[in-house]
Automatic annotation (TrEMBL):
Annotated organism of origin: Deinococcus rubellus
Record InterPro entries: CFA/CMAS, CMAS, DUF7884, SAM-dependent_MTases_sf
Limits of the DUF7884 domain: 70-133
Protein name, as recorded: Cyclopropane-fatty-acyl-phospholipid synthase family protein
Pfam families according to UniProt: CMAS, DUF7884
Assigned protein family: Belongs to the CFA/CMAS family.
């Protein structure tokens, strides 16, 4: 065969090979075509009746719910899909529009918004429902996909456009001084009386410490404050900077029990007002000064620094400046305790393509950002801090948020007066979801002890940490 003919023949075979689809590709394209046709047909049909919406919801739920689940699902007309491993909770869909609103993308935002609006309720153990993200095991066959998509489209059309939920609305550049103050105000200036309903007596809004597991919330928060003071090796006469001082719980405790002078800074005017009143009531105005001040504007020097539950508001963009500021105002040989929530283990069963992880940032902590612990330590070390100790307290935070959620629910009537229905529901789902996320390791909380070595690169710490847990 002439060379030119061989070349054309080879090119022809190569072209045919490239155009030939694998069985998997053919199957995927067939499914996509069937799905598109099913959706088009569903859109051309008249509006579904209440009975058709119920039947579509049942078909989707029977396929999509985990095969092993601790919760029952009750539809708006009383039709119930029972739990399969004992009923610890009941998910009530309150309207034919509910499921169509819940199954929008991203799923985490759609589900949270649907709960805020009252589209569904959860009775019993919230974790039994929230763990759906980990127990999801649906695997419908190819032939079932077009029918499921028709049902989904029918429910979506029947739901219509959902009304907006009350999310935060901030202006300006993310993590600018003005926007940071607005973000803090959105979360913390809700009402001091609201927080008093479910926090401990000191109003400590961070992870408690339950060394035996049997402590009350008040005892656990006192134990946490004591642990912080021990880790910082506080001594009478020292100057402590408390970044993000909240309502003054740590500042007051450290002054009372260790005789240190404390400067606390916050961006929340409501916290500052309450905190100052508590300092005065404790007779500690000579030792504790609380200020409305951005952490970037603090002037030192200080012997020790605490930052408890504040770094989550700093953001990756400003983390280098955050640690550089702390390094600048801390005396050589000083210690800093950074106590912050961190991202944890990823959810294994629901694809990240279906969820954004932005529900809390939209509705609870605007502009909040959780970094993995390794990245936080990297920023600290780049600011010339030495990492001396790291402790994970996530199980303690699961127990803390469980106390908070129960306290909030026990004071529902008062909470509704302060917040209204939608914002009460927002806090209820947020706190209860946190119980599961910390329990399952999707969120973590770390206390990191950092040191600023002196000119000879020395840090005065005992050779053992045993005394911290005496």
């Amino acid at each position: 065969m002439p060379r030119s003919s061989q070349s054309r023949s080879s090119q022809s075979r190569s072209s045919q090979s490239r155009s030939r689809l694998s069985p998997a590709q053919t199957t995927a394209l067939s499914a996509a075509a069937l799905t598109a046709a099913a959706v088009l047909i569903a859109r051309l049909r008249p509006a579904a009746t209440a009975g058709e919406l119920r039947d579509a919801a049942l078909r989707l739920l029977e396929v999509g719910l985990p095969s092993r689940r601790r919760f029952a699902v009750e539809l708006w007309d009383g039709t119930t899909l029972p739990a399969t491993t004992g009923e610890d909770a009941r998910l009530r869909l309150n309207s034919p529009k509910t499921l169509g609103r819940m199954l929008r993308l991203p799923l985490d935002v759609a589900l949270g918004e649907a709960y805020i609006r009252g589209d569904f309720d959860i009775e019993g153990d919230f974790s039994a429902v929230v763990e759906l993200a980990d127990t999801f095991d649906a695997a419908p066959g190819l032939k079932a996909v077009p029918g499921l998509m028709r049902d989904y489209e029918r429910l979506r059309r029947g739901a219509g456009a959902p009304p907006p939920a009350p999310k935060a609305s901030l202006e300006g550049e993310t993590h600018s001084r003005e926007r940071d103050k607005a973000a803090i105000s959105h979360h913390y200036d809700v009402s001091n009386d609201f927080y008093k309903l479910w926090l401990d007596e000191r109003m400590v809004y961070s992870c408690g410490y339950f060394p035996s597991g049997e402590e009350t919330l008040d005892e656990a928060q006192a134990a946490k404050l004591e642990l912080i003071c021990r880790k910082l090796r506080l001594k009478s006469g020292e100057k402590l900077l408390d970044i993000g001082c909240g309502w003054g719980g740590l500042a007051i405790y450290a002054a009372q029990h260790y005789g240190v002078s404390v400067t606390g800074v916050t961006l929340s005017e409501a916290q500052l007002q309450e905190g100052k009143a508590r300092v005065t009531a404790a007779g500690l105005d000579h030792l504790v000064s609380l200020e409305l001040r951005d952490y970037r504007d603090v002037e030192g020097p200080f012997d020790k620094i605490s930052s408890i539950g504040m770094a989550e508001h700093v953001g990756r963009k400003n983390m280098a400046e955050y640690f550089a500021t702390a390094q600048r105002v801390l005396k050589p040989g000083g210690l800093m305790l950074n106590h912050a929530i961190a991202s944890g283990l990823g959810q294994a069963k629901v694809s990240n393509l279906l969820q954004s992880g932005n529900f809390a940032r939209r509705y609870v902590f605007p502009d909040g950002e959780l970094l993995p612990i390794w990245e936080t330590q990297k920023f600290a070390e780049e600011a010339l801090f030495e990492v001396r100790d790291v402790e994970n307290l996530r199980e303690h935070y699961a127990q803390t948020t469980r106390h908070w959620a129960r306290n909030l629910e026990a004071h529902q009537t008062a909470a509704l007066e302060f917040l209204g229905e939608e914002r009460y529901r927002l806090w209820r789902i947020y706190l209860n979801a946190c119980v599961y996320y910390f329990s399952a390791g999707h969120l973590s909380i770390f206390q990191t002890l950092l040191a600023k070595p002196d000119e000879q690169r020395r840090v005065t710490l005992p050779p053992s940490r045993a005394d911290l847990y005496r």
